[in-house]
């Protein structure tokens, strides 16, 4: 009966591992306090930091979300030659993230960037245990009180996605647009909604068909998703995935148009490329690090749920996204319409989510009148707007 | 527009091809008494080698050969440790997988942005116009047609050829085989390496004929699905083919439904392939356990190997 013996053995092994892990996390903060106290010589979180840590959920070279964040971290390293930048790739959104951040802190890091949506809970745990360390998180929202050493930051990427939606709406012949996404988180839902609203603003018939893959990068699933959408007559496709090549190439091979995300992939679709949205984090990361080093993090705009977009003229330099260049099929009329819409968004009364906007079920999502602020917009994008075909997976 | 059943089954064949290549390889390996959990790794190195060589040479066929070589080389490591060093097969397979994950993410960086001339779908004149079956089976890439041939070929090799008798004897009663004057180790080496080569071709199919891309860890568990299929299919090639198609179709179902705006809980759809494995394993588990080669019982029941 050798099988029976495995159970207790395994249980013991796991218990030992857990115990070791628990001891590890208990010790590291103390070390960090000791070293941080002597090095910084001040009480403000992150002040005088000599090491900055970054954790990424994926590999640093995915030509997408993680690479953009990684390039931001390297810009920090370049800007501050005396600061050591620690990076960790492929950090899952669970206790592994907590351990990785604690380990960075034990090595002396006093500013931590947790760059994935699901890193929020581990990041908040680490922040609470290490009040002298600045822990900022990319893309999620802190609900409730914000500790003096934490904050979230992001760009309102749905604004250029809205503009790309205009190009899609103008270009489609079948009035069917496709959108492949990974998980129904507010960021993604806001992008899908903005894409549909942008398309609808120039083409009331345009509908957006959505397919989710439940994975940030599974090229096999992406291939099937794109093929399914194309077989249903979709003639413009976009995506919210961490790796983007498969869907871009699939669209180009099928002779349909493609709207990019994360990076300029126009070389993969020389004919079908319309436009897209891409990232540029360096300026904002450098500013967050500078603010922390100066001991000014607490009470700063980053000690909050910080969002920057077309409507934040003072922060334009720190805007982490750009609209990608146009492809060959985008005509001057479309470009003019996009320019006009962009100016409109930047004006006091403009927004991709300017009401009245109805949700899929017909209820009013955004009322008419003055557009909602960035925080409200993100908060309300938990359902699809009218014109999106498909349902949000419920757990 | 394609109807739902055609689309799901065609997607099942397309997406099941890599699983089937890996499954046939694992069938051969397990029949010789060696479980290779590194199958996932074989797929992965095959996918990278296939994509890298296809992009460098411009020929997807060169990529397929490279995929086979890479899969064979990785499984040779597995074979050496479990056959020569008598290590635990399951643990070694996992170690080999992690080795493959590390190696491919290190060497794969350079190829993420590379482009290739991918295998295109080839419609077979005549056959492709058969209603329903035509678009499902005969509008695929040549690698899928290759696997159609390999399924009966593997069956013939295992159950109708003298080679197959020797190979299966190595998995069932290696001491008897030795008594008759055969060398057991070379047979098992050949089976494991040959199996790895097939999985490597499956990986190359994934990158050069299916997704047209290389990306870190792009196999996403398909190798483990293949091993599960082999076990529940009782290591019989035709059943392995049916199981692979079933998994492929289960994977193709979710996007096909969503693209039609049909609202079904997608998280539930995502677990369909896995739940299916567990159900089938539980339902057929007893019978399969009785069928497994004697050599494998040692592995699964924890007795000292060899």
Structural features, described:
The complex is a heterodimer of chains A (395) and B (306). Chain A is of the alpha/beta class and 395 residues long. Chain A has two domains: 40-155 and 281-314, Rossmann fold (3-Layer(aba) Sandwich); 158-278 and 323-389, Response regulator (Rossmann fold). Helices cover 42% and strands 17% of the residues of chain A. Chain B has 306 residues and is mainly α. Chain B has one domain (18-113, 123-301). In chain B, α1 crosses α10, α3 packs antiparallel against α4 and α7 (162-172) crosses α9. The radius of gyration of chain B is 19 Å and the shape is globular. Classes of the chains: A alpha/beta (395), B mainly alpha (306). Chains A and B meet through α1, β7, α7 and α8 of A and α1, α11 and α12 of B.
Largest sheet of chain A: 7 strands, mixed
Mean pLDDT over the residues of chain A: 86
Secondary-structure-derived class of chain B:
mainly alpha
CATH top level of the largest domain in chain A?
A: Alpha Beta
According to CATH, the homologous superfamily of the largest domain in chain A is: Response regulator
| Helical fraction of chain A | 40-55%
Percent of residues of chain B in helical segments? over 70%
Instruction: Count structural domains of chain B.
Output: 1
What is the count of DSSP helices of chain B, taking H or I runs of 4+ residues?
13
The largest sheet of chain B is: 2 strands, antiparallel
Blueprint (SSEs and pairs):
The complex is a heterodimer of chains A (395) and B (306).
Chain A: H1 2-40, E1 51-55, H2 65-79, E2 84-88, H3 95-106, E3 111-114, H4 120-129, E4 134-138, E5 150-155, H5 158-171, E6 176-181, H6 186-202, E7 207-212, H7 219-231, E8 236-240, H8 245-254, E9 257-262, E10 273-279, H9 282-293, E11 305-308, E12 321-323, H10 332-346, E13 357-358, E14 364-366, H11 374-380, E15 388-389
Helix pairs in contact in A: 1-3, 2-9, 3-4, 5-6, 5-10, 7-8
Chain B: H1 4-31, H2 39-57, H3 60-84, H4 89-108, E1 122-123, H5 133-137, E2 139-140, H6 142-159, H7 162-172, H8 174-179, H9 184-210, H10 222-232, H11 237-259, H12 266-291, H13 294-301
Antiparallel strand pairs in B: 1-2
Helix pairs in contact in B: 1-6, 1-9, 1-10, 1-11, 2-3, 2-4, 2-9, 2-10, 3-4, 3-9, 6-7, 7-9, 10-11, 10-12, 11-12
